[in-house]
Write a structure and sequence with these properties.
DUF904 domain-containing protein, mainly alpha, about 90% helix
Length: about 80
């Protein structure tokens, strides 16, 4: 190999090394961003679960109130069609 050819190969290798380093930096950034997104998704899922739990508790309360109203109506004979 001549000196010019060696210099050309070294120049290409340096360019390739620079690009590989840039790609590695980009991958590090992407990994950090993905971790942030995953953390955000966990929070969203937690909020959805909390909302579902709240809805379930509210439905239980409504069911209990409906049962109490039915018992009160029966005691007061408010459901009797004769009245």
């Amino acid at each position: 190999m001549t000196a010019d050819t060696e210099n050309l190969v070294l120049e290409h290798l340096r360019h390739i090394r620079t690009r590989v380093d840039q790609i590695a930096d980009d991958m590090t950034d992407l990994k950090l961003r993905m971790s942030g997104l995953e953390s955000g998704m966990v929070l969203v899922k937690r909020e959805i679960t909390h909302g579902d739990e709240t809805a379930a508790r509210q439905q239980i309360t409504i069911d209990r109130l409906a049962a109490r109203i039915e018992r009160i109506e029966r005691r007061l004979e408010l459901n009797d069609p004769a009245h």
